[in-house]
Amino acid sequence: MIMTDILNSVIEFNKTAVVDHVTAAIKKGIPIDDILNKGLIAAMDVVGEKFTSGEIFVPEMLQAAKTMQLGLEVLKPHLAGDALMEKGTVIIGTVKGDLHDIGKNLVTMMVEGAGFNVIDLGVDVDVEKFVSEAQVHNADVVCLSALLTTTMPIMAKTVEAFKEAGLKAKIIIGGAPVTQAYAQQIGADGFSDNAPGAVELIRKLTAT
Amino acid sequence: MNRVLFNFDGKILDRIHNHSLELLNETGIRFPNKEALDIFKHHGFKTDGEMVFFEQSDIEKALETVPEKFELHARNTNNSFLIGDDSYRMAPGYGPPFIIEKSGEMRPAVLSDTKKFCKLVQTSKALDFNSSIVAQPNDVPTKTAHLDMLLSTILFTDKPLMGSTSSKICAEQSLEMAKIIWGNTDKPVMLNLVDSLSPLQYAEEMVDALLVYARAKQPLIIHSSCSMGSSGPITIAGSLVISNACTMAGICLTQLVNPGTPIVYGLGGSPTDMQTGGYVNASPEDAKHTAIVTALGRYYHIPCRSQGALTESFSLDYQAGMESSMMLSTAALSGAHVSLHACGTYGSMLAMSFEKFIADEDLCRAVKILMKPIEFSEDAFAMDMIKKMGTSGNYLIEPHTAKRCRSEFFIPDLNTRAIHAKWLKMEPRQMDERASKLLEKRLSSYEKPDIDPLIEKDLIHYVENIK
Fold first, then answer.
1. Which residue of A has its CA nearest to B198?
2. Closest residue in chain B to residue A107, using alpha carbons only
3. Which of A78, B238, B267, B296 has the lowest tally of Cβ within 10 angstroms?
4. Do A53 and A142 reside in the same domain of the chain?
5. Does the distance separating the beta carbons of B277 and A102 come in below 8 Å?
């Protein structure tokens, strides 16, 4: 019952309720991993599905993600040190010369909501920074965003730089002018035109 | 009547203005540009890092020196025109990097597309000037693409033109090309679009371009827009304030640099698609936004820019016609002076289409007639003729009708008015196919406008030298 309450409080973005229910679940001795995976993350999966089907809108999805984060904050002190790192580390940023971040922020919140450790490098990120941060954090997936056709070639350069550096991180790309064909052309590992799609893609790429 | 869209209570405009001043004063505008920051500091503005704060008096002083109207000069003086008063000037799409073909396929634009559009602009009965990026070519180096586009505009048209604002060097080189034609002049010969970044900031390169053009006293469209609900508030009221504050700050900078620099005022507010997070131009909300922005332009006594015949559609269908007509008609009837994107764009300005361009030209011409005042001269009343004809007349045979038969009504180039039986037999019958046919005709009958061979040689040499 309490797991359903956690799930519903995220889906209905009831921020007070999520804190109460997660606290209650911890007190009841429900395994922390279950609260995380079967409660909070499962809720964001439902939210992602509802978004994809057009049932809920972007701002509602974001409120749900924020609600999930609040539940996670309550859970964090009880999580084993690297529990969140287990799913994988994702680096995300908008490429050099491009200052657009709405889509990138959307993906960040959804990927965090799916339980990944996300490092957001912000906008106007140069190739070298993507490479060095991926090395430092041992990234599993790197997400590149671009809105301008003039900055899309930076994505190709980044893919190339990762190959040259011998990094095994998977690279996925997105943004209004970006296409699946472009992803294939530059040798990226994947493309998504929406945030829940990016989560699915990252899950597939990190599945062991 | 509340449903009269274009009458806005002066008190509402005051509130928008006052809230904008509040933002300018308390939150400030970010100018990540050392040169601009130095100018603001030199004039005693309060700054904090890259943030600049404005007093009411700063804005009022700037507005005092902005001209209410100005003449934009063309290479062919017959094509020069006034911006301001009752004038309404149109240019085609600005910035699309793609072309959508009749089949629906989308491909990157190339320089030959840009040149084709220039030829269409030159032969257009609807368009008054060319945009600086009618289609962004992907087959030439990005660094010098602005030179290719400007050279194409100059050589293939003799209508007024726009300069590049992509960077300082782009602006300087655009001005150099203008100098080859007009020599050193501070008369307005090049209109330039500076866009802010929402919320409440400018990109460094845009400010560089603003400074270059303001110093040369060339007219600038200072335009701020936000995607309502994502890069700005979801409400029209909030979006107006955030964009107006940014535009006011930009205008203020132009007048500090060079008082009297001609300005076209512009704010844009487009909804964010709440189901995808995408940007939506063609919408009733954007149209309403345009209506009140033109009222603000009049409030500030500055000519006003609006969007054009925009659509979210990717084909020449009902949606494209409905949305383009709503957007352009609202801009025209609410009093915009300049519309970019008046011809040719699909998908929120993502792509240009040759067929849509031809179709939009009919729309542009129809809209220009729609906004033209109805004639009430004695000749128009035609009382003598009406009395003479009485109840049994056929006005088709009257000289009064013959005299006016080519000028009184809108005559479409593309839209059909055929009877059904004739329409059924029409070959081709579909609008996009008919547009293609007209397009071929237009391009095959195109004649390059005259240009002084020495100027042409110098322009080509200038561009080749840089490349």
1. A100
2. B277
3. A78
4. no
5. yes
